[in-house]
Design brief:
Blueprint lengths: L25 H14 L2 H4 L3 H7 L5 E5 L3 E7 L8 E6 L2 E15 L4 E15 L10 E5 L2 E7 L2 H5 L10
Length: about 170
């Protein structure tokens, strides 16, 4: 039978802590951020956030291939069809939009006027075999749908192949 005895272990605490990531400009960045915060408002800290306020972010576009063609669906809440432009050039589909929002409020002891503007542009390269002469765009309740049909040749190009056991 072996007897074990416990011995005291001396541990030393190091006064030097190795940094996880060396960031030489971190303090400078923080100081500049604080300087702009002193001016007040989010515009100075993030001037490009103005577009995010107008749209919430860059609008998402869903792309779906169907048997007859391709369908692009974009959610554009608060926009009108007159503020949306859809172009097709060199097999590239481009969706552009601009949103302007103005609020004005007058009370007994103050007057407030807020404006926000934002624009976006999304471009998609179309595959071969689409009929560019029959592209259609519809806008209903904040949803833009662009339908790009396939040519008859592209529809017939797909062929189902039977898998046989070897």
């Amino acid at each position: 039978m072996v007897e074990a005895t416990k011995l005291p272990v001396k541990t030393e605490k190091s006064s030097v802590v190795a940094p996880q990531h060396w960031r030489p400009f971190e303090r400078l960045r923080r100081d500049i951020d604080h300087l702009f915060e002193d001016f007040g408002g989010d515009f100075w800290r993030a001037p490009f956030r103005q577009m995010e306020r107008a749209f919430g972010a860059m609008p998402a576009v869903d792309v779906c291939e169907t048997d007859g063609g391709y369908e692009f669906t974009a959610e554009l809440p608060g926009m009108d069809e007159k503020n949306i432009e859809v172009k097709l050039a060199n097999h590239t589909l481009t969706i552009k939009g601009e949103k302007r929002d103005e609020k004005e409020e007058t009370k007994k002891d103050y007057y407030m006027r807020e404006r926000s503007f934002g624009s976006f542009q999304r471009s998609f390269t179309l595959p071969e075999g689409v009929d560019t002469d029959k592209v259609e765009a519809t806008f209903n309740k904040g949803i833009l749908t662009v339908t790009v049909p396939k040519t008859a040749k592209a529809k017939k190009a797909e062929k189902k192949i039977t898998v046989k056991a070897a």
